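Project standup — Tuesday

K.O.: blocked on the structure for the chain from last sprint. Re-posting the sequence here as requested.
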Amino acid sequence: MAAYTQTQTAFYVGILANAASAAPPGDVSELEAFAYKYIVGQLLESDPFIGEWEVVWGPAVYQAPLSKVADNTIFAAQAGPDTPIPGQIVIGIAGTNPNSAFDWLLEDFGVAHSVPWGYGQPGPGLKPRVSLGTHVGLCKLQSLMPGPGLPGFGTTIAGFLAATAPGSSRVTVSGHSLGGALTVAASLWLSDTQSTWNPGKKTALASVPSAGPTSGNKDFAAYFDSQLGSATTRIHNSLDLVPHAWQSDQLKQAPGLYEPEIPATLVLWALAEYAISVTQSQNYTHALESAPPLDGAINAKIIDPEKDACYNYAAQAIYQHVGAYFELLGLDTTSKSILLPLALAASPGADAAALLLKQAQRRFFTARKIKRALSAAGKASAPFKS
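H.V.: unblocked you, prediction finished:
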């Protein structure tokens, strides 16, 4: 009998979508084969915690032009009789692949612009929009099909559900980090189009996004809440930096997130100020904004007094975004079965993240000096962008 609850299980299965991020560089077929082997092995290894599960579709991988890594991954697994909801299907959506420039530059940070939500019938006065990055990610997921030899070969996730969902009591979408933002969008897309893949809508649809940034604007959040709010479990750690993006009032809190143990620095305030200036006009808002967070705690053990604030902030942010969730959700972190999911969900190391912060600081202040110089010379400068 499974030891985990439905929420714990959905979170855990969703994390496995990140398997291809651990693969060596290769083509789509190699990445899919790698992910399939690891997901199947992980499900078997985790049987004492999650019960019996079977991969029934995918994994399917998107690879951007010139990329050698998995830029998007999605798969579906079905629960056995000894699970919290026998027969349910969990769709797992991968988060950011640390090695993917496509993910970082477009899907993560493609937030300066947004596009209209193209599905369903939002209420009067609502004009839901999603960030460009979320839109691109969702479009990739909608069109993916597993390769030869994999479950669901040649079918999209919608096609698979049309053939399979009528025999399942529930479909749950789950993803972490970028996967959390895409989970919100994919869940609403499936809800808005359910009559095409599940006529009669007899299959319940649920959403378990975790650690995600915002997917869209305030109207999108309101529309999502009206359609799926009661069927959604939003998981977010109060000390996780990522869910503070890209909602302006949340971004303002980000620099001092770990005070007083880790003091806010000028670079963090500058980056928050810049992020707000770029995204404020989009009015990004979290779906299920009022969902109470997990009560995070500073991990004092990883604060290195020999390192600077940028390093310690980055190290704490990585821990709060990954490992803290396993602890806060009460998942086993001692057995072999948990090690791979922990690694798969990991972000770049603290040294690399701290270096990126410092490079951003130099870029920000160099650009600001140029702007001030232009102003001092009495020249009209264009709207400032960095």
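K.O.: great, moving the ticket to review. Strands lie at 53-62, 72-79, 89-93, 114-116, 129-131, 170-176, 204-210, 216-217, 284-285. The first strand starts at residue 53 and ends at 62.
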